[in-house]
Design goal:
The chain is an alpha/beta fold. 50% of the residues lie in helices and 20% in strands. It has 13 helices and 10 strands. The strands form 2 sheets. It has a 5-stranded mixed β-sheet with strand order 3-2-1-4-5. Strand 1 and strand 2 form a beta hairpin. Helix 9 crosses helix 10. The mean pLDDT is 93.
């Protein structure tokens, strides 16, 4: 029997799914990180081979039984970067005396898109530390909106909300703005109570800007007008992503699966977002993902055989 492997790689762990050729799950496991842009090629290569060997040991199959393997990971959407990892895996396989047939590196967002709609047309909106939207049209073409990173993009993301929350606190410390509960929560959580401490933490101590986003949610929940206005603006930015994707896909109904803790966890922001989507669009539907990203990777793997 022949098998397929799909992997969903992240900064802390990699999920792995082994299926038969008919996409029936056979074995699932997890391994180490596989963000090759951060930890390097060698560590990711070790993760991939460890996961393959774990699958082989548990199911009594060999490398020859695996017809295709797709890894979805950050940076995989840039073909030049993906090719570097693909070449490294082929090289390491030769050194081990094995062959990995049809190994492919893809974007973690694209495998999430494939899994969410079982390979059918649809779109995903990702809002975590960063933000980006991907869509697949009726012709199978993949479209992208956003994803320009923390310097010139990431609207509606944790990094942007956190940055604007810190800005609101800075303005209050300076006397340029009215009091905001965001500043109180930042002081409670991080012991930042003045302009001087804020500047030191952000510019010298590698402060995690996105970690402020939940505090902005909490402030908004308590009725803080500045926090509420901030989140309404960021929600509108995500609605612009949806409007742009609608134009690209040109579908009568745009189905969207949400990815990322900001929009999938219950909080002020996720409730506001869902409410504003319903209010603004009558041709957009929020859908639960049909399958996992690693299953999406398996779907893509089948296309390569």
């Amino acid at each position: 029997m022949k098998y397929l492997i799909g992997m969903d790689g992240g900064g802390t762990k990699t999920k792995c799914l082994l299926t038969d050729i008919n996409l029936n799950p056979v074995y699932e496991t997890t391994g180490g990180p596989s963000n090759f842009l951060v930890i390097g090629l060698d560590k990711v290569s070790n993760t991939i081979f460890e996961l393959i060997e774990k699958c082989a040991a548990e199911t009594k199959i060999s490398y020859d039984d695996i017809d295709a393997l797709v890894l979805g990971t950050t940076g995989g959407g840039r073909r030049s970067d993906a090719k570097i990892l693909e070449d490294q895996i082929v090289k390491d396989a030769l050194a081990k005396g094995v062959t990995i047939k049809n190994f492919r590196v893809e974007s973690d967002a694209v495998i999430a898109l494939e899994g969410s709609f079982s390979g059918k047309p649809g779109s995903i909106l990702i809002a975590g530390t960063g933000s980006i939207m991907f869509g697949k049209d009726d012709a199978g073409e993949i479209h992208r909106v956003g994803g320009f990173g923390k310097f010139i993009g990431d609207e509606g993301s944790g990094s942007t909300i956190g940055k604007k929350g810190l800005n609101a606190a800075a303005r209050y410390f300076d006397g340029r703005s009215k009091h905001t509960r965001i500043a109180d929560l930042i002081e409670q959580e991080f012991a930042i109570s003045s302009s001087e401490i804020l500047i030191t933490e952000v510019y010298r101590n590698n402060f995690n800007v996105a970690s402020v986003a939940p505090l902005v949610f909490e402030a908004a929940e308590s009725g803080d007008v500045i926090a509420q206005s901030l989140l309404e603006n960021e929600t509108n930015e995500l609605l612009l992503h949806i409007t742009a994707m609608k134009e690209k896909l040109k579908m009568p109904i745009l189905n969207i699966s949400l990815v990322g803790s900001l929009l999938t966890n219950p909080n002020y922001y996720s409730y506001l977002f869902n409410e504003m989507v319903v209010r603004k669009f009558d041709d957009v539907k929020i859908k639960e993902a049909e399958h996992s990203p690693e299953f999406g990777a398996v779907l893509m793997a089948k296309q390569f055989i």
